[in-house]
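Sharing a chain and its predicted structure for anyone who wants a worked example. Both blocks are below, sequence first, tokens second.
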Amino acid sequence: MFQNADDESSDEKALVVVNVNELLENACDDDSDDVPILPPHKRCGNHSLNLVASADTLKAREDKVFQRSYDRAMAKVQALSNIVSRSPKANDTVEDITGKTFLKPTCTRWCSEYYAVERVVEIGLDKVVECETALGLSVMTSADMKFLTSFIKVMKPIVSAMKLIEGESHCYVGQLIPTIMGLQRKL
């Protein structure tokens, strides 16, 4: 902690360098009630919401009909993502057909799966089928695209809430509760 030692104006406070390690070590030796303590740990709201979304998606897979639809559609999204990320030639083919490329989801961020699916839905069934045919992949059906469109519709409020409460400089605890309550209402 720093405090300014030179008092050029009466509004400025003196800065003093304090070694936190020594302060805490001395506090352990001291039996007084004036022991400095760290504030309680606060979990990241965005990370917690990310975990909820991931856990709920896994829980929904307990329904066998949902699981079959989810696995079939997501496997096709993953196949598209894998091929364009591994092969520059495949990526060029996709860009020639769609003007865009498919996004690759990562296991550390649930939102990345949403964005990958959103890109597939945004490109549309006809262009996706054209890409899959050109790349020799299993072709997406209209039922797969309908599932992906429903997935986007259901998960969009979660992603919007995560965007609101992420960040270090423009996110405050006062935003967390209204965001979560609004999300509950939407879902």
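Comments welcome. Residues 1-38 form one domain.
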